[in-house]
Structure formats: structure tokens, C-alpha cells
Amino acid sequence: MKAGAHPAFISYPPKAAYGRSIAKSKIYEHGGTNSRLKELFVRQVEQIVWQYKLAPETINLPGRPGVPEIQVFSILAKTKDLEHDVLHCIDKAVQYPIIFEVVHGDRIRVSACYKRLNESDAARWVLSEYFTTDWISSDEIRAPMPQALDLASLYEQLLYRLMPFKARPQEPLRDLVDRADQVRTIQREIVSIEARLVREAQFNRKVEINAALRRLKSECEKLTN
């Protein structure tokens, strides 16, 4: 990897360039949008561009069930805080795994969920929560695309690079995603309990809340190590 390159900020092959703008109306049509989501798109999204199409005919890697292609979408955002509900809506509308590059000014952040076929219903997708990089300067060096034997393994490698902590030895991506979801749940509990601790006036209750807080932090540390 080139020095200074962010591992999730990928240099995709020119042959895979697609560069087609997608009308928001198409997303509304297929993504099951309601009035709140449409308002989010209007307020937060300037343009959606289908930037790259990673497919057997563009990068010479065979597809696999669930990953026949990988799409790379560039989202030109009006605001720096693009809500994940927007990405989720696009993921629901497009029947392929997607890597998003959210652009705001001269900065980019890469975001994706783990998108897989439902094991009991192959017509439906299961979407995890989103994993997102920090903001990256748009002129930063891009990392080479990972080498892979097929599109499924390429997709996994792209997602591994977005994870908030490293995989354990031989840990499958699905297990890592589940572990990351557990950590997020615990972190939300920690924030809630810390707020309760600030509000609590009774000493005995503070002691109990502190003990619960320590247990949660210990559990979170075990999951992230």
C-alpha cells in the first residue's frame, strides 16, 4: 500500500468507471421512501453518481451468489452530516452491494453496510448498520484495490477495511460485523448510563450506576480486543 494511503480509500480500475448520474426519483421509486426520507434527500443530497461498476466484464473477477457485482456510488452531499437513512434507502433500491463515497467540499468519507442475501428468502437483502471512515482529503493518495479471487472475496476485503477494529484470527466477516454491532449497542448504553450518573443525586445510586458502567466498559473492551 502506498505511504499515506487510507486503506478504505480505493483506487478503482479505470475500466470499471461508469459515471452515470442517478435521479432521486428512481431511488424513491424502488427504495420505499416516505415523506421524511424524501425531505432528507432534498435537504442533504445534491447528486448521486454511479461511479464504478465492479463486475466480471470490467475487472475480470467472477461473481458469486449475493455478489454478482459491486457498485461504487459517489454522493455529493449538501451537508457534512449525511444521515445513514439516506444510504439505507439507496441500498434498498439497488440490488447489489454498494460502497459509498460521500463527498462534501474537498473531503470524502467512505461508507458501507454489510449487505447479504436473506438465507430464507433470496429475494430479500439483510443490511447491517453502516461503517464509515473519518473525513479524507479528496487529494489524498488512494490505496490499490485489494487482490481477490472473486467479487465476493473482494467485497469482504473492502468491508474489512471499514471496520472500527481488526478482525480476530480466522474471524469471518459476518462474525466481525455482529461483534461491531454488539459494541455499538453497549456504547449507546454507556452514553445513556453516563447521563443518568450526572443527573443522580443520591450517593448509593451513584455507586450502583458506576458499578454498572464499569461492567459495560469492561465488556466493550473485551469485544474490541
What does this structure look like?
- With 225 residues, this protein is α+β, with helices and mostly antiparallel strands.
- The chain folds into two domains: 6-162, no CATH class; 177-224.
- It is 40% helix and 29% strand.
- It has seven helices and nine strands, in the order E-E-H-H-E-H-E-H-E-E-E-E-E-H-H-H.
- The strands form two sheets. Strands 2, 3, 4, 5, 6, 7 and 8 form a seven-stranded mixed β-sheet that branches.
- Helix 1 packs across helix 4 (84-93) and helix 6 packs antiparallel against helix 7.
- The longest helix has 27 residues, at 173-199.
- The radius of gyration is 20 Å and the shape is globular.
- The two termini are 25 Å apart.
Number of strands: 9
Count of structural domains: 2
Number of helices: 7
Oligomeric form of this entry?
Answer: single chain
pLDDT averaged over residues: 92
Q: How much is the radius of gyration in Å?
A: 20 Å
Summing up helix and strand content along with how strands pair, one would put the structural category as alpha+beta
Question: Main sheet?
Answer: 7 strands, mixed
How far apart lie the N and C ends? 25 Å
Q: What are the segments in which pLDDT stays under 50 over at least 5 consecutive residues?
A: none
How much of the sequence lies in strands comes to 25-35%
Q: What would you call the shape?
A: globular
Helical content (DSSP H or I, runs of 4+): 40-55%
| SSE run | EEHHEHEHEEEEEHHH
